[in-house]
Each structure stands twice: as structure tokens, then as C-alpha cells.
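Chain A, query sequence.
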Amino acid sequence: MSNTIDPDTTENPMARPPLGLPTGSVRALLALLIVAVVIVETVRGHAVDELWSETLLIALAHYFTSRRFVGLSPDVLRRLENEGHVPRESNPLFLPRHSIRALIVLSFAGLAYYILEIRGVRSLAEFPPVLITVSAYLLGVFAGSLWAWRKRHRAAPASRLWEDLKALAVILVMLAVSIPYFLNHREPLPPHVRNAALAFVLFYFGSR
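Chain A, predicted structure.
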């Protein structure tokens, strides 16, 4: 009796996602729950725990980080999906494509409206820190997407000068924030200056 296993009859480990839901549904549900907790706590005027903020940023990075793929023909991509080497494109939670990203953006847009219009907050120092970090990161994501779209539609090759200047600026900002900590100065900068500097760093990560 042959011990050879026919690859066509073996179960594809990527064929059935967790709970039998569309691929990415569990991650989508977790991300939406994290967003909901952070927004509810912020609206109630409670300081968002650091662990929640960090978990939120990781969830955002999953959905908004630029993904670079090698160009593949549709036939090759379909074959790789069938063989389980590449996850299939699907609609998490049975929603249309990009719905989770849209829900996240709209949720924080609503929170920003609440803070600005309902509470009447105008000073950066009074803004919830989690809203500053998320806004900076998402703004960077949109700026990076716009810049990438612009480069694709330009006839001439884009100059790298802007990217170099942006990289140099963010390194200098991060050094200005970091060096006093290395020198053991615990409060080297006013909180609003430090928050603005770190927001710029998050903007840079989002734009990449």
C-alpha cells in the first residue's frame, strides 16, 4: 500500500478560516471591539489605559499599513490561493471590501466631532491623547496613499528629495524627544510639545 499523499485530496489548512467565517472576520471583530472600548472610555472622560492604546495602534497597523506585493498575473495568484500559499481575498464579517477600515475611520471622525463640537475643546493640550495619536497615524496613512497615487500617475520619475527631507525631519524630532530621556531628565519637554512630536512620528509611520 502506497504512503503517498495526494495533495489534491488533502485538506487545505487555509481553506477553512476560524469559526468558518470569511477570512479576517475574527481580526475585524476584535479590532472593532477595541475601537469601541477606546471611544466609549474617551467619551465618558476616562483616561484610556496605555495597554488599550497600544493594542489599538497594533490593530490599526494591521488594517492601514501599506502592503507591497509582487505583481502576479490573475492565473498565478488564483493558483497560489488554491494551493494555500496566499490567503484568499474575502469580505470579513460578510461586509463589503474596505468596510472595516471605513468603520474605524468614521468612528474616530465621530469622536473628533464630539470632542470639538459637543465638548468645545479647542486646545491641543486638552485633546485626549489617544485621539491625537490615532489622528496623526491615520492622517499619515492617507497622506502616504495620496502621495503613492500621485507618483503612479506622474509621467516623470518622482524625486526622492521629499522622502529624504521627511525622514531627516522625523529623525531630528525623535532625537530631540529621546536625548533628554537618555540624560535622565524625566520631564524635559512640556506635555503638549512632546505629544506633538510623537504625533509627527506616528504620522511618518502611517505615511510609509
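Residues 175 and 182 are 10 Å apart (CA to CA). Confidence is low (pLDDT under 50) at residues 1-14.
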